[in-house]
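sorry to bug you again but im stuck and you know this stuff better than me. what follows is a protein written twice so to speak, once as letters and once as structure tokens for the fold. id like you to explain what the token line says about the fold, in plain words if possible. anything you notice is useful, everything is just below.
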Amino acid sequence: MDDKVKYEMEFVIHASPALLYTYISTPSGLSEWFSDNVNSRGELFTFIWDGSEEQAKLLSKKNGERIKFRWLIDDEDDASYYFEIRIQVDEITKDVSLMVTDFAEEDEVEEGKMLWANQISSLKQVLGSA
């Protein structure tokens, strides 16, 4: 297996951090923009897209601030890959940004970034901040 490379992206979002946290941390919130449906049992989240599903383990979350998952397929490979969605508020301007950290094969980073941009665009539409 090739090593994946880490990449980070920042998206400015016009919404309150509390509302945003609901959309990134709950199955109902995630199913509004991230995938067609999301189910969870404890730390195990199942994301469903067009009939296919992927499972991710909740690694950590900090209330109102961030959530971190690892895809089970990466877990099986004993890899340390994860994806994290973090809310960042600028102390001076009070601008709210969503910081995304993810990993992809080197030749798939641009595709991964485009996918996240599309997902965050969907989130902005749901929030009415598009």
About this structure: Helices lie at 17-25, 27-33, 72-76, 109-127. The first strand starts at residue 4 and ends at 12. Residues 109-127 form the longest helix (19 residues). The beta strands are 4-12, 37-41, 44-49, 52-62, 66-71, 83-89, 96-105.
